[in-house]
Structures are given as structure tokens and as C-alpha cells.
Design brief:
- Chain A: This is DNA-directed RNA polymerase III subunit RPC5.
- The structure holds two protein chains of two kinds.
- In chain A, about 35% of the residues lie in helices and about 25% in strands.
- The two termini of chain A are about 45 Å apart.
- The chains are: A alpha+beta, B alpha+beta.
């Protein structure tokens, strides 16, 4: 069916006898053929970052952080994106008020902080780049969203509270009350205790996360040399053909098995 | 408008006893007639049964008599009107009950013989139909009603209480009324169905079926056409040419592919064979080195190397055709060889050895077809490639090294997202599966 077109294709992409029928559409013709390569070189390191606050007309390269931090164990990162304090739109008065949340030196709020949050994957994601007419795929390890971190507001509020001398005792009492409530619940039923333990474990994890200190993260932008060399790892070095161990019916079974029944 | 819901609530609750009360109160509100009458009619179940007797005694004494099925009281034939008809579409009937009230009263005066129910039914039905047609459920109720109504004539359906109440009151009469007397009623039922679209019943259903099928087909076709060409154009630029040229600038684009599961891969047997061969080479070298110390060893080693190379060439990977052949031939040995060779290899050319555990190599082909379809074949699995959801926010690909020194590399902006779905038609033994 499409053999004449096949000949025109690049040789390394051509498997003799390949026709549209092999792709499930016997009446069709192949217009272009791209070999697909898979590599795992960056598989453990790739994160698909989502920036929900920025529209897709902006490229992430335009969002260069001044400072970046990482919690190595949990893999959480924080980016400080600089704000233009000289802009006519910048309200210096408010900037000074909020800058208290960053430091006491009277610094203006000149950064916005984005903190990463992991998002559960619903399927396998793969990053694909084309080079020399070849498509190279690498599995993506995590989906991450960068959300604004408003810790500076918390700090501003704390300072205001301290400044207006609200009783710390009240806060402690509240905490004690809370503690008591928890204990009561635990004693009441074993099931509740188990539930509480679960919740506590999440809180526990959260606490652990907060306890881990930030480490400096070196951020390399899109056009930089380092990024270029890393992105070259997206290309497979091996040109040999891999054999797919999974048959189509087995594949279907694995797909169905991996689906979570979230629809009744 | 608080009136409406409250009234609605009142109706069912007021059915058994307070119909009159409800009617009068409703009247007071000004909606009055419509509601009161409707309430009374809807309040059918036990109300009419009780009312029938009293009505016989005092026909049309109260204004709410309009609500009671028989005005003159002469023919206390069971009026199947209320339960049967209303069942079809309760909400609309409740709503529409407001309208026909005015009409109903007039009609009641005009046709006392027919009985409230029917007259009311007719009056009620038509406005009800009109309302249902105009609303968002214009198509829906017609279908439901067409199914339900046919089965509904003379039976209770959604309002069993109503029927039950009536049945209890008039027993055989009710049923008789339902079946026999309701022939006109039945026809009214039929009318109801059809009147939803103001068309004949047959035309109605036929048109609906056609429309649905056509709509589904149209949507499918549109989806197919719309999505495919955008994906196809992304890769090949121009679907019309069959020269195999890829779209310009494709090299700079970063794509994300969504795939439900990643199949498992093994190294091609050629690689394994090659590694095995090189391993053999090594062993032989060592053996020869151990046996002979003279320089003569070198040529023999070379010979051995040549021999090994020759054997390797048989398994050589370069032409794809051979790959295919070898794949088929060597498959059974794959597992054995893989296990053996994974561990050790010191040949520099086998850099890919590092990625032995992970697949690194060619896994398939992506084709753009003339019809605009884009398919990817991985092994024997055929996947259909379509456009993923359009993302309104910024996305980037970041490579993060969590080990020392901690670094993050921005690899690029995500330009396009694709969704890979397995093509079920191409799975050969799918039908034979359980």
C-alpha cells in the first residue's frame, strides 16, 4: 500500500514491509515516519513543573529565580522569583509592610516565593524531544506544582501579634485544649485511635518535612550550558532495537489493572 | 419565589386531607386557582377517594371543587387523570399545573360530564407539554414519556400511591376506568407523549432517534478530524505530502506524552549476543594468554577476535532487517543471555551496558498517516496519538539532582502534550479473551 512512500523515508527509519496496516489503519497511507527511542538516563530526575499562576504564554525561562532552595530528602524545592520594586505598579508602602515578613531590616518585599507540591500521576508521562528526525522519550518521575508560599504573611501576622501584645498564654491554653481533645478521642474507641494514628502520621510526615532544613539549590536556566548538556541526556545513546516483552493483550491487562476504580 | 416550592411541598402533603385547605390558602396567595386546583389534582391519591363521596353529596359546592374530579357528580367515573398522567413528568406537571388552572375551571363548567380529571388532564397536559418542550429537557421527557406512558396507561408507575388511593376508593371501577374509560384517557396519554413535540408520536421518536445517531456520528467525526490534523501537522507539517518530511522546528519542541502504562523492554538479542561474544573473546584471550607467552599469541588472538567478530557479525545489528530476524530467532534465549550478560562487561563500546537495567534504545515508530491519524507502535502494541488537554498555565521540564551538589536544570518549556491510547482493534486475540 504505502511501499513507494516507504522508500522515500529515511533508511534508518524504514522497516521494509511497513505499511499503514501495521498501525491498524489498512486503508491509510503513511505520510511520515519517526523512529521512537526510549531512554532512562534522566528518568529519576525529571520533573514536570506546573506553574498555575502563570499563563502558558510565558516560558519558564522567563521566570528565573534569584535564589533556590531544596530539601534534599523530601525533594521539595523553593524558588524566590524577584519582583520589580522599581516598577510604577509597585506599591512601596505595602512592600515595606510586607517586607517585615522577610526580614526586619526594612527591606521591601521584592520576591515571591514558589514552593513545590507533588501531584499524583494518573498515568505514565514521558518527555519527548525530536532530534534528527528521531523521537526520544524519557519517563517523567514526578509532577510538581509550584504554588506561592505565603510564609511571609504568617511572619507579618506573628510580628503584629507580638507587637500588640496579645497574650501568649491564650495561645498555649488553646493548644492545651486541643491536646486534651485529642487524647479524649483516642481513648474512646480503638478504631478512632487507628484513624488518629493515621492522621498523626500525616501530620508527622508534615512535621518531618518542615524540620528538614533547606539546602542551597543551584538553578540553571534554559539556555545555560549546564542545562544544555543535561538535556542532551534526553537523547538515547543506544540505537539498537529493544524488544517489547509485553504483548498487546498483556498490555491491556496491565493498563486495566493499574487503573484505580474511582468511578462507581 | 418562595411560593412555588412551598406550594409544591404542600401539594403532596396536603393530598390526603388538607386539599381544600391547601387550595384555599393557595388561592389566597393569588396563584390560587392554578395551584389550588393543581394541588387538589396532584393530591389525588387519597384525596379524590375521600372526596369522591363527599363530592357526590355536594357537587361543585366549593371553589376547590374545580379540583375534585367530578363537578356534576353524576358520573363518578374514575378519572385516571391525576396519577397516570402526572407520573410521566412530575416536575413539569407540577409546574404546569399552574397554567391550566384557569382553563380548567372554564372547561369544567363547560363539560361537567367528562369529569374533571379528563378535562383537567387535557387542559393540564397541553400546557405541560408546551412547558416541557421549551425547557432544557425538551427531548428527554419525550423519550422517557414515550416509554413510560405506553406502559403507564391504566397503571400507576411513579405515583403508586395515587393509583392505590384511587383504586381503593373505586376498586374495580378505578381500574375499569383506567383501562376502559381511559381509552380517551389513554389516547390522551398518547397525546401527551406526542404533544411534547407537537408532532405525531411516530415522527417524534423517529426524528429523535435519527437526531441522536446523527449527532453522535457527527461528534465522533468532528473529533477525529479536528484532533488528528493538529497532531499530524505538529509532526509532519503538511499532511498532504508523502515525502516524509517532518515539521520545521520540531527539533526545538518539547513534548509530553501520556501513556497509560509503559511496556517492559528487554535488550535486543543482538546486543546480548554481542556482549556474550565479547565476553567469550575476553575469556579466550585470557586463556590464550595463560597458555602461551610468546608474541605469536597476538596473531592468534587476532584470529580469534576475527572469528569472534565473524560470529558477531552474524548477529550484527546494523540492518534493521537482521534485527527483525534475530529478534524472532533468538527470543527464547533472551532471558538466559540477559541474565548472564547484565553483570559484567568491560568493553568500552558497551557503554549502554550502564543502562542495562533500564531500557535504552529504539522501541518503536511513530507514523503520521494521510488521514491525519497519528499512531505509535511500540513492539506489537499500537497506540493512537491524540492531543492532550490544552494547558492554560505555564509548564516546564526540570531535571533535579537531589544528590550533592543540589542542582536543578530547566530543560525547556512544554510545547505540546499528547495522549497515547491503545488501539483495541489491532489487538488480535482480544475477542478470544474472557
Amino acid at each position: 500500500m504505502s511501499s513507494p512512500e516507504d522508500i522515500k523515508m529515511k533508511d534508518n527509519a524504514d522497516i521494509p514491509g511497513d505499511s499503514a496496516a501495521e498501525y491498524g489503519l489498512p486503508e491509510d497511507e503513511i505520510v511520515a515516519k519517526i523512529p521512537v527511542y526510549l531512554t532512562h538516563k534522566l528518568a529519576k530526575n525529571l520533573h514536570l513543573m506546573q506553574y498555575p499562576q502563570n499563563s502558558n504564554s510565558v516560558k519558564p525561562g522567563e521566570l528565573l529565580p534569584g535564589v533556590a532552595r531544596i530539601k534534599p530528602i523530601h525533594g521539595q524545592i523553593e524558588l524566590d522569583i524577584p519582583l520589580d520594586v522599581q516598577s510604577a505598579m509597585y506599591n512601596k508602602e505595602r512592600g515595606r509592610e510586607l517586607g517585615v515578613g522577610i526580614s526586619d531590616t526594612g527591606r521591601l518585599l521584592d520576591i515571591r516565593t514558589l514552593v513545590s507540591v507533588n501531584i499524583p500521576k494518573s498515568c505514565n508521562y514521558m518527555a519527548g524531544v525530536v532530534q534528527d528526525g528521531e523521537l526520544h522519550l524519557t519517563p517523567i518521575d514526578k509532577l510538581t506544582q509550584l504554588r506561592p508560599s505565603l510564609k511571609y504573611l504568617d511572619r507579618v501576622a506573628e510580628k503584629q501579634r507580638a507587637a500588640s501584645k496579645i497574650d501568649d498564654d491564650d495561645e498555649e491554653e488553646e493548644k492545651e485544649v486541643k491536646a486534651q481533645t485529642i487524647q479524649v478521642t483516642v481513648r474512646s474507641a480503638e478504631a478512632e485511635e487507628a484513624l488518629r494514628q493515621q492522621q498523626n502520621s500525616i501530620a508527622f510526615m508534615q512535621k518531618k518535612l518542615e524540620e528538614e532544613p533547606w539546602s542551597k539549590l543551584q538553578y540553571y536556566d534554559m539556555g545555560s550550558e549546564e542545562s544544555g548538556s543535561v538535556s542532551s541526556k534526553l537523547i538515547a545513546s543506544n540505537r539498537e532495537e529493544l524488544i517489547c516483552k509485553t504483548s498487546p493483550s498483556d498490555y491491556l491487562i496491565s493498563v486495566i489493572g493499574s487503573m484505580e476504580p474511582d468511578v462507581l | 419565589m418562595p411560593d412555588i416550592p412551598s406550594q409544591g411541598d404542600e401539594k403532596p402533603s396536603s393530598r390526603p386531607s388538607s386539599s381544600l385547605r391547601g387550595g384555599s390558602s393557595l388561592r389566597g396567595r393569588g396563584r390560587g386557582r392554578g395551584l389550588s386546583s393543581s394541588s387538589s389534582t396532584t393530591g389525588g391519591p387519597s384525596l379524590p377517594s375521600e372526596r369522591l363521596t363527599s363530592i357526590r353529596n355536594r357537587p361543585t359546592s366549593t371553589p376547590s371543587a374545580a379540583t375534585t374530579p367530578t363537578t356534576g357528580g353524576s358520573k363518578l367515573v374514575f378519572k385516571p387523570t391525576i396519577p397516570a398522567r402526572r407520573n410521566k413528568k412530575e416536575p413539569s406537571s407540577l409546574l404546569t399545573n399552574t397554567l391550566p388552572e384557569a382553563k380548567r375551571e372554564k372547561k369544567d363548567e363547560k363539560r361537567p360530564d367528562r369529569g374533571r380529571g379528563r378535562g383537567m388532564m387535557r387542559a393540564r397536559e397541553r400546557p405541560a407539554l408546551i412547558e416541557s418542550v421549551s425547557g432544557p429537557f425538551a427531548q428527554g421527557p419525550a423519550l422517557i414519556s414515550s416509554v413510560g406512558r405506553r406502559g403507564m396507561t391504566g397503571t400507576s408507575g411513579p405515583m403508586p400511591s395515587a393509583m392505590g388511593g384511587l383504586g381503593d376508593a373505586s376498586g374495580v371501577k378505578a381500574e375499569g376506568g383506567a383501562t376502559g374509560d381511559s381509552k380517551p384517557g389513554g389516547s390522551e396519554d398518547v397525546e401527551l407523549v406526542m404533544l411534547t413535540d407537537h408532532n405525531a408520536l411516530d415522527n417524534n421518536s423517529a426524528v429523535e432517534v435519527q437526531t441522536e445517531e446523527m449527532a453522535i456520528q457527527a461528534v465522533e467525526e468532528m473529533n477525529r478530524l479536528r484532533l488528528d490534523f493538529s497532531v499530524a501537522e505538529f509532526f509532519s507539517g503538511d499532511c498532504k505530502t508523502t515525502e516524509g518530511e517532518l515539521a520545521a522546528g520540531l527539533d526545538e519542541k518539547m513534548m509530553v506524552f501520556q501513556i497509560p502504562q509503559l511496556p517492559e523492554f528487554d535488550l535486543a538479542p543482538e546486543i546480548i549476543q554481542r556482549r556474550l561474544a565479547s565476553k567469550q573473546k575476553k575469556l579466550m584471550k585470557q586463556r590464550i594468554a595463560a597458555e602461551k607467552i610468546k608474541e605469536d599469541i597476538k596473531p592468534s588472538i587476532v584470529d580469534i577476535d576475527a572469528a569472534a567478530d565473524n560470529s558477531a557479525i552474524n548477529v550484527d545489528v546494523k540492518p534493521d532487517i537482521r534485527q527483525l530476524e534475530m529478534m524472532e530467532d533468538v527470543k527464547p534465549d533472551l532471558s538466559k543471555l540477559a541474565i548472564e550478560d547484565d553483570k559484567d562487561d568491560s568493553e568500552p563500546e558497551d557503554e549502554d551496558q550502564e543502562n542495562d537495567d533500564q531500557a535504552d534504545g529504539r522501541v518503536g515508530t511513530l507514523v503520521v498517516l494521510k488521514s491525519g491519524a497519528v499512531r505509535m507502535k511500540i513492539g506489537d502494541i499500537v497506540l493512537d496519538v491524540s492531543r492532550g488537554a490544552d494547558c492554560q498555565f505555564m509548564r516546564g521540564l526540570l531535571a533535579i539532582d537531589q544528590r550533592e551538589p543540589h542542582s536543578a536544570f530547566l530543560l525547556g518549556n512544554v510545547d505540546q502534550q499528547f495522549l497515547c491510547t491503545p488501539d483495541l482493534d489491532s489487538i488480535p486475540d482480544l475477542e478470544q479473551q474472557e
